[in-house]
């Protein structure tokens, strides 16, 4: 198959049979690191994120464009023999296949791991689901919201212990599951390079949520008490949270003895160092509400900018609380190339989120926009050895959607 020509995963071919967010997150990470990720979409409407609208840019769904940049798009009807046959050929030449179908679907299509590994023993077959391939919930469908609730995340998120359940604003379980699957694929690929052996692996949204409870689980294991929501505060360190200024909030991380005492001097409250409620980290955690009141009374005397300047000069960890657009425009975001622009054939120049891992020797990058529906079907079939007549026949028969690449003038 095609070689991306860049990144540490150049030469890896991935067939993505995933839709919406968790699986596509895995694919975009692999693609940004140089893998040739070929996204297979269903012929009836494609990836579900194509319908996650609004918003759109010139008719193209923003959600789909975000999750599928750097990938090639192929549309096959897997209810037809020709569509399934083409997919089998693709997987036969691939290094990795990712899928998020419900249990049994791939097997019914003749695309289960046990079948595919017979002709491609080095295949890495990576599955992502709501709850994993084993256990009493294996057959349940999964969504980020459900996983956040069942993993414990919603019990530790919110303003106060007795408040209503609050979801983490970002789809934490979806994104983390995708990252975990990408990590697992890279580990399995390393093993295959050494031994030639492929393998099956899987992860789930449920387990992804559980991984975010390391601190809270440590507390629960040690005490037998389930931690609850604490607002912006930390369950093990204080002060490590947001404080209120005259014009908003900032975050401070003054939990260590040196930072704590230095910060007290800066805010004009050195006496709090000897206050029995606050002498040690444990004391401060036990009297967190009193600590918050003391800190807010001092920080509310000046602006966010004032305190950020003072704290930075003193070397005390602190930072502003930005909204998403402010984050996009932050100079550190730009310096780390985290908001690149790609030229989409319909939407024109669109911004996306960049690769968060920087390689000095084999840099990854966001090199291409998300595909329009069926954009690369003919190209990929041709690489598999299909003739132009064969490809045209598949298009006429409805086994594949060949797509048309409109010019920008037509799109506008």
- SS field, number of helical segments: 18
The domain count comes to: 2
Q: Strand share of the residues?
A: 15-25%
In CATH, the architecture of the largest domain is 3-Layer(aba) Sandwich
> Overall pLDDT, averaged?
95
| Shape field | elongated
Largest sheet: 7 strands, mixed
Helix content: 25-40%
Q: Looking at CATH, which topology of the largest domain would you report?
A: Rossmann fold
Q: What is the number of E strands?
A: 14
Q: Compute the separation of the termini in Å.
A: 33 Å
Class of secondary structure makeup = alpha/beta
- How large, in whole angstroms, is the Cα Rg? 25 Å
- Spatial order of the strands in the main sheet? 8-7-6-1-2-5-14
What is the CATH H-level superfamily of the largest domain? Crotonobetainyl-coa:carnitine coa-transferase, domain 1
CATH class assignment of the largest domain = Alpha Beta
Give the low-confidence spans: 405-412
């Amino acid at each position: 198959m095609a070689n991306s020509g860049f990144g540490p995963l150049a030469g890896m071919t991935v067939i993505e049979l995933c839709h919406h967010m968790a699986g596509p997150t895995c694919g975009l990470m692999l693609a940004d690191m140089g893998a040739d990720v070929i996204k297979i979409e269903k012929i009836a409407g494609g990836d579900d994120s194509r319908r996650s609208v609004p918003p759109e840019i010139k008719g193209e769904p923003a959600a789909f464009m975000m999750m599928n940049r750097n990938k090639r798009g192929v549309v096959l009807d897997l209810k037809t023999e020709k569509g399934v046959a083409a997919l089998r050929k693709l997987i036969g030449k691939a290094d990795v296949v990712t899928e998020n179908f419900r249990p049994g679907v791939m097997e019914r299509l003749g695309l289960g791991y046990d079948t595919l590994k017979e002709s491609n023993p080095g295949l890495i077959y990576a599955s992502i689901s709501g709850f994993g391939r084993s256990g009493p919930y294996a057959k349940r469908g999964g969504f980020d919201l459900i996983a956040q609730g069942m993993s414990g995340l919603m019990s530790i998120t919110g303003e106060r212990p007795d408040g209503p359940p609050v979801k983490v604003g970002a789809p934490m379980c979806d994104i983390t599951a995708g990252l975990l699957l990408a990590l697992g694929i890279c580990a399995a690929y390393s093993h295959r390079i050494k031994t030639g052996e492929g393998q099956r692996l899987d992860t789930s949204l449920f387990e992804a949520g559980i991984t975010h409870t390391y601190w809270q689980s440590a507390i629960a294991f040690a005490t037998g008490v389930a931690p609850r929501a604490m607002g912006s505060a930390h369950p093990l360190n204080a002060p490590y949270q947001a404080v209120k200024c005259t014009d908003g909030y900032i975050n401070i991380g003054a939990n260590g003895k040196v930072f704590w005492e230095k910060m007290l001097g800066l805010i004009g409250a050195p006496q709090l160092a000897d206050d029995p409620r606050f002498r040690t980290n444990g004391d401060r955690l036990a009297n967190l509400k009193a600590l918050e009141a003391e800190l807010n009374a001092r920080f509310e005397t000046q602006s966010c900018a004032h305190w950020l300047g003072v704290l930075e000069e003193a070397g005390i960890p602190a930072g502003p609380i930005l909204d998403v657009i402010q984050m996009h425009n932050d100079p550190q975001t730009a310096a780390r190339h985290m908001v690149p622009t790609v030229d989409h054939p319909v939407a024109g120049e669109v911004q996306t989120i960049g690769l968060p891992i920087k390689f000095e020797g084999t840099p990854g990058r966001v090199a291409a926009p998300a595909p329009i529906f069926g954009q690369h079907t003919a190209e990929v079939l041709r690489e598999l050895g299909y003739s132009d007549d064969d490809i045209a026949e598949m298009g006429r028969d409805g086994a594949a959607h060949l797509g048309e690449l409109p010019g920008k003038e037509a799109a506008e």
